[in-house]
Structure formats: structure tokens, C-alpha cells
Write a structure and sequence with these properties.
With 431 residues, the protein is an all-alpha fold. The protein contains 16 helices and no strands. The chain is 74% helix and 0% strand. The longest helix has 35 residues, at 275-309.
């Protein structure tokens, strides 16, 4: 497969996958559950540490396995084809389809909140339109899609930095009004470990794009070096941006203005700068989410094309040396269906749990690969402590979150079970 992508495009892909719907929706839900800005920011800091541990672990896998495919490739080669198939299945339904639907739905929520939606505009119209346009751009040309992606990410970063700088200047001037969310009697609810774990799972969705570069590794120049660098650089950059953004979201406005709302960025900046600023911020967030949709449609179909080339998905999904047009069309169709049948908060819990399990299993495969091939063949920074931290902490937080809110994790486990069933049927047919 031709090498189209350099370090800039790969890093932009990571940044675009990470800075998506999660960071612009999670803080309001987290503040409603955790009650204080400090606890919310602590959840984001924990998520950043885990994401960096995950990026370092994926980097070790990417140096050894330099083809496209992501979790499907790593799990197939390191563990077993069945594990890889389930990893690809989770990517299909949750990692990309669900995440695209989540980002597109959040984009529409920012552009046209329910309170101001005109009667002539049916729900989900904008979300579906963004998905279709992104699919057409990436299906038409690899180069066109990459250039559009890089431009969107550059504009997004500049605008986000401008918002952070302006809000910080207002904080220095004493205009920030944030504080704890108090009970009716004036007290602050005590720290709840289960609620904190749920928030970390929500936050983990915002960080889950740290691995985005591995999905297009087969089309990267000098993949063994550039893909790991892109993941680590993108993760550090985004973690810093997340902490700054969420400080604005939970410290600038009065807590009652943002607790439990899905369009937290617009509400927060609107409380700080009035209606004109809120309108501008909503447009910035919509642009950021459009780049997220674009990056997911750029990355996801490469996984399905890889699976098709290996014979575990229909051959017509393979892409050859150009854009995988059939896989992109399938991705767009699946995302449109999910947009129509689910809501933002349910998607947030389902995606956070399901993708956390998939990533934890992938990082765990590093232990198997390293044991089998040795330290020289599979060098890994901080081994074994860094991958052990990621796997252990992710599983603990996932278990606590599932205990507190079991429905979406059960759907996530059902997704994995369906993947195992599909593998069994595929393998039986092949035999």
C-alpha cells in the first residue's frame, strides 16, 4: 500500500480523534455527579496519565507491527485470530460507528440546541449530513481527505487556544464564578468512588483517540518511527488542552449553569461572555466535531479493509492502493443508523466502557508478544510497569463504573459476545 501520510498528518489524525465530542460534553455530566470542579479536573488528569501509558504501550506494538489495522492487527498477531476479529468487531460497532454517531450528534446539539431548533428542521438532519459529506471527501481521494483533515485540525487548535486564552484573561480579571455544586442545605456531597470511576470512563472516551495513527500505519512513511511519535506527541498535546479547557468549563460559569448539560462549552462561555460569545463558541465546537467525524471516517474503514484482505470480512471491503471506498460507504451507513436510534449520554457510557476493555486487552497483548519474541524485538518504554498501569487501572475503573451504571456496560459485553459468535460462524464457514 502506498505511503501517503507523514508525521504531521499522523499527529493531526491523533489530535482530531481525541479532541471530539467527549471533551465538549463530559464536564457537565461529571460535575453533576462529582459536585466539585477539583474532582472533575482530577478525573481528567487521571485519564491523561492512563492515555499516555496507553500511547507508550501502543507505540511498542506499532514499532513491531507496522501495517494498518489497529486492535484487529495487534490482537490477531499477538494473541489469536479470534481475539483480533473481536477487536475489529468492537472497532466497527463502537470504536468508529458509535464514536462517529456521538460526535455528529453532539455537533448538531451545539449548532441547533433543542430550545431553538426550527420546526422545519427534522432531528438528526445536520448530524447525518456531516457524516455523508465526510464520507464523500475521504472516499474520493486519499490526498484530498488528508489535506482537508490537516486544515480542519489546524483551525480547530488555533480557535481552541484563542478561547482558552480569552477565558483565562477573564479569570485573572476576577470574572470566573465557578465553585462546588451544593445540596439544598448548602453542603457539598461527599466523594463517591463509584461516581468518580464513572466519570473516568466518560473521560476515557475523550482520550481513546490516542491510538488513531495505528489504523493507517500501512499508509505511513517510516511507520515504525513516525506512528509512535505521532501517538505520544498528540497525547501530550491533547492532555494539556483538555485540562485547560475543562478548567474553563467547570470554573468559569456558576455550577448550576453547566451541571448535567450536554453542550457544556457553549453554556460555560455564554455565562462568561454573553450570547455573542456563546454563538461563536458553538461554531468553534461544531468545527472541532466536524474534524473528529472526518478523522474517524478516515481511520475506521482502513481496519475493515485490512480485515477484508485477511479474509474475515467480505473481499469487496478491501481498498487496494486507493481509498477504501466500499468500507467508507459501509461506515457512513452504519453511523447514520446509530445516529437515528440512540442518544448522547447513553453513547458516552457505552463507548467509554467498551473501548476501554478493547484497549486494555490490546495493551495486555504486549506482554504476550514481548515474552514470545524478546526485549530486543519488542522494545517498550517503562516495561512492564507502564502497560501494567494501563491495564490494571482501566479494568478497575471499568468494573466500578459498571457496578454504578450497569445497562450500557452490559450492552458493551453483548457487543463483544456477538463478535465471538460472528468469529465462530466465520471460522466454521471457512472450514
Amino acid at each position: 500500500m502506498a505511503a501517503h501520510f507523514g508525521l504531521l498528518t499522523l499527529t493531526a489524525l491523533v489530535v482530531a480523534n481525541m479532541i471530539g465530542a467527549g471533551v465538549f460534553t463530559t464536564a457537565g455530566f461529571a460535575l453533576a455527579d462529582l459536585h466539585t470542579p477539583a474532582r472533575v479536573l482530577a478525573a481528567w488528569a487521571v485519564g491523561g496519565v492512563l492515555a499516555l501509558a496507553g500511547a507508550l504501550s501502543y507505540a511498542a506494538l506499532a514499532r513491531r507491527l507496522t501495517e494498518s489495522g489497529g486492535e484487529y492487527l495487534f490482537l490477531s498477531r499477538a494473541l489469536h485470530p479470534a481475539a483480533g476479529y473481536v477487536g475489529g468487531w468492537v472497532s466497527l460497532l463502537a470504536g468508529f460507528t458509535g464514536a462517529i454517531a456521538f460526535a455528529a450528534s453532539a455537533l448538531e446539539a451545539y449548532l441547533v440546541p433543542a430550545a431553538v431548533r426550527p420546526d422545519w428542521l427534522p432531528p438528526d438532519t445536520i448530524a447525518i449530513g456531516v457524516v455523508v459529506v465526510a464520507g464523500l471527501a475521504h472516499g474520493r481521494s486519499v490526498t484530498l481527505g488528508a489535506r482537508a483533515q490537516n486544515l480542519l485540525v489546524a483551525i480547530k487548535l488555533v480557535l481552541i487556544l484563542a478561547v482558552i486564552a480569552w477565558a483565562t484573561s477573564r479569570g485573572v480579571a476576577g470574572a470566573w464564578q465557578g465553585g462546588p455544586l451544593r445540596e439544598p442545605d448548602g453542603t457539598i456531597a461527599p466523594f463517591d468512588p463509584l461516581a468518580f470511576a464513572q466519570s473516568v470512563m466518560w473521560v476515557s472516551l475523550s482520550y481513546s483517540g490516542f491510538n488513531a495513527a495505528v489504523y493507517v500505519a500501512g499508509e505511513a512513511r517510516d511507520a515504525a518511527h513516525q506512528v509512535p511519535r505521532a501517538m505520544i506527541a498528540g497525547t501530550v498535546l491533547v492532555t494539556a488542552a483538555y485540562l485547560a479547557l475543562n478548567a474553563v468549563f467547570v470554573l468559569a460559569p456558576p455550577p448550576q449553569a453547566v451541571a448535567g448539560v450536554e453542550d457544556v462549552a457553549g453554556r460555560a462561555l455564554g455565562a462568561l461572555g454573553g450570547a455573542p460569545l456563546e454563538t461563536a463558541v458553538r461554531a468553534i465546537v461544531a468545527l472541532a466535531l466536524a474534524s473528529s467525524v472526518s478523522s474517524l471516517i478516515m481511520a475506521g474503514p482502513r481496519v475493515y479493509a485490512r480485515m477484508a484482505e485477511d479474509g474475515v470480512l467480505p473481499r469487496w471491503l478491501s481498498g487496494g492502493d486507493g481509498a477504501p471506498g466500499a468500507a467508507i460507504a459501509m461506515q457512513v451507513g452504519l453511523a447514520v443508523v446509530v445516529i437515528r436510534v440512540t442518544g448522547i449520554e447513553a453513547l458516552l457510557s457505552y463507548l467509554g466502557f467498551t473501548l476501554a476493555l478493547s484497549a486494555a486487552l490490546t495493551v495486555a497483548s504486549l506482554f504476550v508478544l514481548r515474552t514470545r519474541e524478546g526485549a530486543v524485538a519488542v522494545p517498550a518504554a517503562g516495561y512492564p510497569w507502564v502497560p501494567a498501569l494501563y491495564v490494571g487501572a482501566t479494568l478497575v475503573f471499568a468494573a466500578l463504573a459498571a457496578w454504578r451504571r450497569p445497562l450500557e456496560p452490559l450492552v458493551g459485553l453483548a457487543t463483544i459476545a456477538l463478535g465471538l459468535l460472528a468469529w465462530w460462524l466465520t471460522a466454521r464457514q471457512a472450514r
